[in-house]
Amino acid sequence: MMKAPLPPGAVCYNLGHISRIPRGEGRTYRLRDRLVAVFRSRSEELFATQADCPHRGGPLADGIIGDGTVICPLHAFKFNLRTGTPLGNSCPSLRTYPVRLDADGNILITVDD
Amino acid sequence: MTRKQRLVVIGNGMGGARLVEEIVSRPGGEHYEITVLGAEPYGNYNRILLSGVLAGTYCPEQIFLHPLAWYEQHDVRLCAGQAATRLDWQSHRVQIADGSWEPYDRLVIATGSSPCLPLLLNLVREDGQLIEGAFTFRTLDDCQAILAHSSHARRAAIIGGGLLGLEAASGLVKRGLEVHLIHRAPHLLNLQLDAAGSAVLARLVSEQGVQLHLSKETVAVLGEDRLYGLRFSDGSELACDLCIIATGTRPNTDLARAAGLAVRRGIVIDDDLACSVPDVFALGECAEHRGQTYGLVAPVWEQARILAERLTDSASQKQYTGSAISTRLKVSGLDLTVMGDKEPASSTDEVVTYAEPTRGIYKKLIVREGRLQGAILLGDLPGSMPAARLVQLFLRGDPLPTNRAELLFPCHAGSKQALSVAELPDDAQICNCNGVSKGAILAAVRAGKRSLQALCEATRAATGCGSCKSQVQELLVLACEGEVAEDPAVHYYVPAIPLTKPELVRVIKERKLRSVSAVFQALADGREDPTSKAGLASLLKTIWGKDYQDERDARFINDRVHANIQKDGTFSVVPRIYGGVTTPEQLRRIADVAEKYRVPLVKITGGQRIDLVGVRKEQLPAIWKDLGMPSGHAYTKAFRTCKTCLGSDFCRYGLGDSTALGIKIERRYQGIEMPHKVKLATAGCPRNCSEATTKDLGAVAIEGGRWEIYVGGAAGSRVRKGDLLCTVATHEEVLLYMGRFMQYYRENAKYQERSYDFVERVGIEHLRRVLVEDAEGICERLDREIQAAVDAYVDPWQREAEQPVTPTQFSQALEAVPVPLGASE
What we know:
The complex is a heterodimer of chains A (113) and B (825).
Chain A: E1 10-17, E2 26-30, E3 35-40, E4 46-50, E5 64-66, E6 69-71, E7 78-80, E8 86-87, E9 99-101, E10 106-112
Antiparallel strand pairs in A: 1-10, 2-3, 3-4, 5-6, 6-7, 7-8, 9-10
Chain B: E1 5-10, H1 14-24, E2 32-38, E3 44-45, H2 50-55, E4 64-66, H3 68-73, E5 77-80, E6 84-88, E7 93-96, E8 101-103, E9 106-109, E10 113-115, E11 134-136, H4 140-150, E12 155-159, H5 163-174, E13 178-182, H6 195-207, E14 210-213, E15 218-222, E16 229-232, E17 237-239, E18 242-245, E19 249-251, H7 254-259, E20 267-269, E21 280-282, E22 287-289, E23 292-293, H8 297-312, E24 326-328, E25 336-340, E26 350-356, E27 361-368, E28 371-378, H9 387-396, H10 405-408, E29 429-431, E30 436-437, H11 438-446, H12 452-459, H13 469-480, H14 501-510, H15 516-523, H16 530-544, H17 557-561, E31 564-565, E32 571-573, H18 584-596, E33 601-604, E34 610-615, H19 620-627, E35 639-644, H20 658-669, E36 678-683, E37 697-702, E38 706-711, E39 714-715, E40 719-720, E41 723-728, H21 731-748, H22 755-762, H23 764-771, H24 779-792, H25 796-802, E42 814-815, E43 817-818
Parallel strand pairs in B: 1-2, 1-9, 2-5, 9-21, 11-18, 12-13, 12-18, 13-14, 20-22, 35-36, 36-37
Antiparallel strand pairs in B: 3-4, 6-7, 7-8, 10-19, 15-16, 16-17, 22-23, 24-25, 25-28, 26-27, 27-28, 29-30, 31-32, 32-34, 33-34, 37-38, 38-41, 39-40
C-alpha cells in the first residue's frame, strides 16, 4: 500500500512490537535526539507525548493512566494524553506525537526532525 | 458586523486576571478580543495564599485560580512569560519582550508591584541576583525557591515586620525552622497598629516561636557565595542560612513612566480608572488614585469590577471613589483585624480601648462623630461582636450604639446568639476580599448550593484569603436548617465510584469483582479513572488476598518495580533488616552492592534501615539478587518497619526485650498492604528511645514485665502521641493486638488515611470496645483475616528478580530505530 509521504523534516521511528508495553502502562523510548513516552490503554489506544513532565521533569511513562489521561508519578500533575492539555494545573501542554501500529504490530511514531 | 475591540491587559496577577474574568462574564464582554501579557510563566494564581503555601497549608497547585486551559475556553489569548517592555500610546501599541508589537484599542496596565530591596551591603551580587540564601517573597517562584532552600536550612531571618514578614515568619516556624524576625521600627506592624497593640502582638508572635529583634537595622549580608548571616547597625551579627526580605513593595511604573504617563508614587488614575493618555487604564497595586496606592486585594478587586463595568457598558457612569481599608492577618492562631485610623486625629475623637495582654487581647476603637473611624481587634473575646460586624459598621459609616461597651462585650447573659453571624443584617459583608454579603450567600444556599464548596464556588466567598470560611460555613448551616448537603464525594472511597468504603466492599464481595478493571466495568461504565486505580487495587488485595486478580497498570510505579521513585526518575532500594538488627555479613553485602553498582548515596533512614539511593530501574533486579535480602517495602502503603531500641540484653535500663519483640513483629507483618504506610516501634522502657509512642503502632515495656500498646501516634507533618489501646503481659499478646488493630484499620480506614487520622476519627474508646472487649464479636474473625494476609505474603524482590512480570518491567528507556523514508508501511 502506498503511503502519503512524510511532511518535510519529519522522521518516522519504529518503536518495536506493541507487546513491549503492557496493557494500561507506558514506556519511555529513546529516539535519536529525544525521549518520548508511549502509552497503551487497556482499550488498546496508543498515545505518545514528550517523556518528561513540564512541572519538574518526572518520567510520565511511569505514571498511572486511564480515561485518556496520565498522572505524573512525582507530584500527580495530570494531562490529557490525546491533546497534551494540562488538567487542573497550569503547566504548558505536553508535546504529543502521531503514533500508530503497522501491520505487524510494530509501533510507528512520527516526529519533526 | 463590527470588528471586535482589541483589549490588551498588561499583567496577569490579582488585578489583571480578575479584570479579564469580570469582562468575559459580563454582557458586552464578547465585543472584546482580549490579550493578556503576563510576566510569570503561569496561569493566574492567588498571590494572597502564597503565605499558606509557605506554611504548608496549601500546595502550589491548589492556589491556581485559572489554569491555562481557562484562557483557551474563554478565547482569551494569554502570553504567559511575556512581559511588556514598551508602550507607544500615540500609535496604540505595546512592545513585548520578544520584540514584537501588539496593537490595542484599549489598554489596561495592571503590573502590580515589586519587592522594595533595602540597601544592604552584599545583598545583591554583581549579576544583579540576590546572594544565594536570600529571597524576596512575592511570586510563586520565590515561594518555591524558599521552600526548596528551607529543606536544608536551619535558621531563617526575616527582614521586615509588616504583614508579609509576619506571615513568612509564621510559615517557616511551621516548617520547623528556627525563625528570627528583624524589624527596623520599635514595633511590629507599625503601619497598622499602635504601640500597645503591637506589644500584645509581639508577645503572641514570640509564643509561636518567632524570635523578635525590634529597633534593629540590618546593614549587611554576610557571605561570599552564599549567605551565612546578617550584620546590624549596632555592630552585632546573627548567623542564619536563609533570609527573606519583606521590607515593602514599590509600584511597577517603569513602563508607564517611560511612555510619558503621569506617574507619582503609582500610575495616576482618575475616578474612571483612566490614565493621563487616551484609551489607557490602570488598576491594582501599580495605580495611584487620589494620592493613595493600595496593597490589599479588596480594593484591587473593587477597581477591577468598576473598570469591567465601564469597559463592557459604554453607558456606565460607575466611578471609583477610593476604598476604606480593613484587613485581617492570615497567621494561624492569631486573630487580628484592623481598619481605618489607628490613632485619634483630634481631641474630639473618642478612643475606646480594652486590653488583656496576657491573654493576647487588645481592642481599640476610634470613634468620630458617633461613627467608627478605625479599629484594632486582636484576640477573641467569646460572645463579643464579630469583627465582621465592626468592619461593616466601619465600611458603611453606620451610627454606633451610644453604649460603646456593646461594641466590645457581650451585653446581657443570653444575648450571645444575638451577636453571632446569624444576627448580622443581610447586607453585611462576609467576604471582604470579594465583597460578598451575607444576603448573597443566603440566596445562593436557597438556590441549592448546599455544600461549602459549591457555595464558595458560586458566590466566590472565601476564595480570596479564605479567612471568612468559618463564617460562610456558619451561614450555610443556618440557612439549611441543619440540612447541609455535605459534599457527598468526600465520603467516597475513590472519586470515580459514588460509594463509601463499606458500601463498596459489600458490592465488590456480592458481585465477586476481583480486579480493578472489573470494578470499573461494573460500577463506573468502564471509565477507568486513573486517580481511583491505586486505591481500588489496595482495597481488592485486602478483600481477596491471594484470589485478587492483580493488574499491574493499577499500581503506582513504586509498586510496579518495588522501589521508591526519586525526583530524577531513579529509585531507592531499602533491604529489610528486621528490627534494625543487622550483621557484619549483611553490611558487607550491602557495601559490595553499593560499590559494584556505583550507588550515588548510601543513607541510614529514620526507621533504622539502609537506603541505597539513586538506582536506575534496570539495575533493580540484579541488585536484589546480589543483596539476597527481602524487600524492606520502603515504597508502598503497607507495613514498613519496626524500629527497636537496645532492649534488655545490653541496655542497663531495659525492662523488656524490645529487640526480640520488634524482630518478631516485623517477621510476622512485613509487607502487608494497608490503607497507608504503617511504621512501628518497640521500646524497652518508658524512656522510649525508639519513639514508640509517636508511631502508627508502638509497644513500650513498663515495670512489672508488661507492655503498653499505643495506636495512632505521629511524628511527621503533624505530631500526635498515640492512644493507649491496652496493656498486656507477653510478646504474643502484643503481636495479637497489633495484628487485630492492623486488620481493623485495613477494613475501615479510607485509602490514604493514616492511622492517626483513623484513630481520631473512630475514637480510642470505640477501638478498645471492639478490639479489646470484643463488643462486636469480630475479634476472632479479624485475627483469622490478618493471619491469612500473613500467610499470603511473598517477598516481591526475590520472586521478580528471577522472573519479571513483563519483559520490559525494569526498562528505563527502550531503543527505537528510524524507519527509512517510504518504508514506513
